[in-house]
Amino acid sequence: MHIFYAGTIKLSYFLVAAFILQASCNNKRVHEMKEWEECQFASSCICKNVPGLDELKADCSDKNLPRIPRLQNNLQDLSLQNNDISTIEDGIFEGNYLLKFLDLSFNRISKIRKHSFKGLKNLLSLDLSANDLKYENMSFESSAFYFLKNLKILNMKKNFHTSFLPDLWRLRTLESLSMDYVSDKIAVLTENFIYLNHLRSLDLSGSTGNCTMNILSQETFLSLSQITHINLSKCKIQYIYKGTFKSMKNISELDVSFNTCLRFSALENITTDLQYTAIKILKVNYIHSTFEMNTMLKTSHIRNLRNTSLIRFEAAGNRIQRVEYGAAKYFPKSFESVNVRDNDFSFGKYLFDLVRLPITSLDISEISSSHNVLKSYVEACVPEEDTVTMNSENNLLSRLLSRFDFKNMNFDHNVPRLPVPRKLKNISLTSSKLKFEIPKLGFTTNELTNLNFSDNILHTWTGPLTNVNNLTVFDLSSNFCSNVSKIFFSEDFINLTYLLLQNNLLGLILPTDVDGEIFQNLQNVVHINLSKNRITNIPNLLFKKQHNLERLDLSENMIGGMNFKISHMRKLMFLNLQNNRISTLSKYAMNELDSIAEINTNLTIDLGGNNLVCNCDSLSFVKWVVNTPTNLHRREKYECKTSENTISLLQNPKEVYETIQKECMSYEGIIIGFTIGILMFIFILCAGIIYRYRWKLRYLYYMVKVKWHDHEYKSDKKDERQYMYDAFVSYANEDHTFVHNTLLHKLEKNGGVQLCLHRRNFLPGNDIATNITSAIHNSRKTIVIMSSNYLASYWCMFEYNMAKMESIYERNCENILFLVFYEQISACDLPLQILELVHCQSYIEYPNDEYGDVVFWEQLQRAIKSY
C-alpha cells in the first residue's frame, strides 16, 4: 500500500537512522561490489547470484553495447540501460523464461515486433523509456506485446511526441503504466484501456516524459474507472471540465501539480468530481501562474471534500493569501496532513478557524519565496479575465509573531499564545525570510512533537517558549542567531529529544554561560547539533544537565581545546569535533573520555580535520590515541603535524608514538642528564677542594682581615719581624685553672715570657676568629695545652689549625707549635692532624713528680725563647 504522506514521518526517526543508514549503506555497497563477477555470456557485463535461488542478476548498463548479447537461461534480472542498442532481434529472449525484470531504457530502439519479446512469458517489469519509438516509424506491430502474458509494470516515457498510443489491450495483467501523451485538443484515452482491468497506476507526468493535455473532459478517463493513482503533473493542462474524474470511483491519489495555466479556480471543478471517489491524496501544487495576482482558498473550492476520506492535501506555490472564514470546516474528519508551502499567507480571521482542523502535520514553509521551484519552467497561458485577485499584505508570520495586538489571541499570565490545531504534531516553517526576535511566546492546546523553524533570520531567542510539553524535535538551524536567553528553553521542554541549532552565531553567547543555564531544562535531550556556530570555547559546565545525551555535534567551529565536562554523559555514543582548531587533547579531556569509554564501549569521537600535532609536547596525547578505549572515527585519515613540519597520518599511532618518544628522549634526556652530571661533578670537586683546603682558606680570610685592620704590618722576614707576644696559649676553658694559676706564674712572672691569653688579651668588639688569628700571628710561638677538653672544643681545634696554617704559610714551615700534654691521652683518641704532628715533631708531657716539674718548666721556657 502506498504511503499517503511524508509529512507525518517524524524527523526524529530520520535523525536517529541517518547516521546508521549512511554507514550501513556504504558497507553494503562495498559488500555488494565484491559479490559481482564477470558474466559468462559477456565479459563487459557483471553478474551476481540471487540469494536462495539458482538464478542471476546481470548488469550490462553503460557499456556502449550495439546489440543484446546471447544470454544465459538462468537470468532473473537484466539491465541493458544506457547502451547503443537499436534493434531487438527476434527470439533473442526465447530461452529466458525465468527473466522477471528487464531494463532497456536510454537506448536507440526504434521498432518492436511480435517476436521481440518471445520467451518472456514470466516478465513482470519492462522499462523502454528514453528510446526512439515513434509513430512515424510504425514502431509497434499490433502484436508487439503478445508474449508478455504476466507483465505488471511498463514504462515507455520519453518516446512519443505525438498523440500516438500503442496497442496495449493484450497486457491484461498490467498494473502500472508510465507513458507519454500528447494532445493539442481534448485529451481522450482510447477504449483499449477498458481491457486493462488490473491497471491501478497511470503516470502521464511531463516531469519524467512528454505530456500535453490542454483540456480534460468527461470522456478523457471514461475507460479508466479502475485507476487508483494517476499523475497528471506538468501536462500543460489549461482547463478541466466538471465530470472529468467522476467516473474514477476508485481513485485514491490525484496529482495535477505544475499545470500553471490551470489556475487555482480550477480546484472547484476537481473537488466537485472527487466527492464520488475514494480520494485520499490530492496534489494541486503550482497550478496558479507565478505572475498572477494572489488567490484565496474559498469554501467553494473544498466544500465537496466534506464527505470524502481525504488524508493529505497539497497546494504549494499557488500564491494563496487567505482562506475564506468558515471554509476549514469542510475538510473531512480523516484529514491529517497539509502542504501549503511557497504561498503568500497574510494575517486574518481565518487563523482562528483553522484551529478546528483535525490535521497532525502542517508545512507552511517558504512564505514569499517567489516560487523558486518554477524559475526555469514558465507556461504561456491564455489570459483569464475573472481571475481572483487580492492585494498583497504583510507576511503572516511577521505579523503574528512580532505583533500581539489582535483581539482573539489567547493570553495566560501575559504570555501570548499562537493558535494551532489541537491534534497538530508537526509544523514546518522553513526558508520563509522571517526576521525578528522570538519573544515570550506559547501555543494553544496542542500535541506538537516537531517544530522546524530553520533557514530564517530569527536572530534573538528571548522567550521563554512555553506549552511545548510534547515536543521532541526542535529545529532552529540557520537563523543567524547570536543571542539566547537563559530562560528561552523553559521547563516545558521536558520531553525534547533532538535539538538542532547548527549554522548560527551562538559562538558569541555560549562561552559566557559558565554555569550552564541555557540548556539546564533540557534534561532528556539525546541529540544536540551545534555545528557551524563559530564557537571558540565551551564552558566546563555548559552541558551539566545532559545526562541522557547520546550525540553531540560541535563540528565546523573554532574550538581550540576540549575543556568541558562530559563524564556524566554515560550514554554518549558520538562526539563530533571534526574541523575545529584542536591541536591536542588536555589530560582532563582524555580522562573525561576514558571515564565514559570504560562504561560505554560505543563511545566514538571524531577529531578529523583538526590541526593535530605530534611532537614532544603532545606525547601524552599520542600515547592516549594508542591506548584509549574510546573509538576514534576514521582515525586512519587523521593528519598530525610533526616537529619537522611534516604531515603524518595516524594510521599506525603506535609507530608514531615510538618515533616521537625516541626523538624526545635521545636529546632532552641526555642533555639534562649530562648537564646534571657536570654540575654535580663541579659541585663535588669544589666541595672537595674547599674541604681539603678549608683551614687554609679560613686562615687566609682571617689574615686578610687582620692585615686590613693592622695598618702597621711589616714584612714577615725573621730578622725584621717584631712580635707582640712570646707565646699564644691555646687551651680549653675547663683547663683555665692550670693556665692562669700555674702556667702564667711559671712562665710570665718567673720566666719573663710574655704570654697571650684569650681571656686577658683578646680585644673586645672583635669576633673570636679574628682575635684568635691576630693573636697567633702576633705571637712568636703557640703553646697547645692538650687535654680531652681541648679535643672536644671547637674553638680550641680552630686555634690549633690556625697555628698550623701560620707555621706553613707565614713562617716558612718554622716550628711554632708546641704541644703540652696536660693529660695522658691514647694515640687512638687523637685526631689525625694532631697525631701527624706528634709523630713528626717533639712534644712535652706535663710531669707528676717534683724533679720533672722543674725540668718541664725550664725546657718550655727555653723552647719559647729560642729563635
- Tell me the number of strands: 44
Overall pLDDT score: 85
Number of helices: 16
What is the terminal-to-terminal distance? 137 Å
**Backbone CA Rg:** 53 Å
Describe the largest sheet.
Answer: 24 strands, mixed
Uncertain ranges: 1-21, 385-412, 712-719
What is the CATH architecture assignment of the largest domain? Alpha-Beta Horseshoe
Q: What percentage of residues falls in helices of 4 or more residues? A: 10-25%
Beta-strand fraction estimate:
15-25%
**Number of structural units classed as domains:** 4
Which structural category do the helix and sheet elements fall into?
Answer: alpha/beta
Shape: elongated
| CATH third-tier fold name of the largest domain | Leucine-rich repeat, LRR (right-handed beta-alpha superhelix)
The CATH class of the largest domain, by name, is Alpha Beta
In CATH terms, the superfamily of the largest domain is Ribonuclease Inhibitor
Q: Secondary-structure blueprint of this entry?
A:
Layout: H1 11-35, E1 37-38, E2 46-49, E3 56-59, E4 75-79, E5 101-103, E6 125-127, E7 153-155, E8 176-178, E9 181-187, E10 201-203, E11 211-216, E12 229-231, E13 239-240, E14 253-255, H2 267-274, E15 281-283, E16 295-297, H3 299-302, E17 312-314, E18 320-323, E19 337-339, H4 350-353, E20 361-363, H5 396-402, E21 410-412, E22 415-418, E23 426-428, E24 435-438, E25 441-443, E26 450-452, E27 457-461, E28 465-466, E29 473-475, E30 483-484, E31 498-500, E32 527-529, E33 551-553, E34 574-576, H6 587-597, E35 604-606, E36 612-614, H7 619-627, E37 631-632, E38 639-642, E39 647-649, H8 653-692, H9 694-709, E40 725-730, H10 736-749, E41 755-756, H11 758-761, H12 768-777, E42 779-786, H13 788-792, H14 794-809, E43 817-821, H15 832-840, E44 843-845, H16 850-865
Parallel strand pairs: 3-4, 4-5, 5-6, 6-7, 7-8, 8-10, 9-11, 10-12, 11-13, 12-14, 14-15, 15-17, 16-18, 17-19, 19-20, 20-23, 22-25, 23-26, 24-27, 25-28, 26-29, 27-30, 29-31, 31-32, 32-33, 33-34, 34-35, 35-37, 36-38, 40-41, 40-42, 42-43, 43-44
Antiparallel strand pairs: 1-2, 2-3, 21-22, 38-39
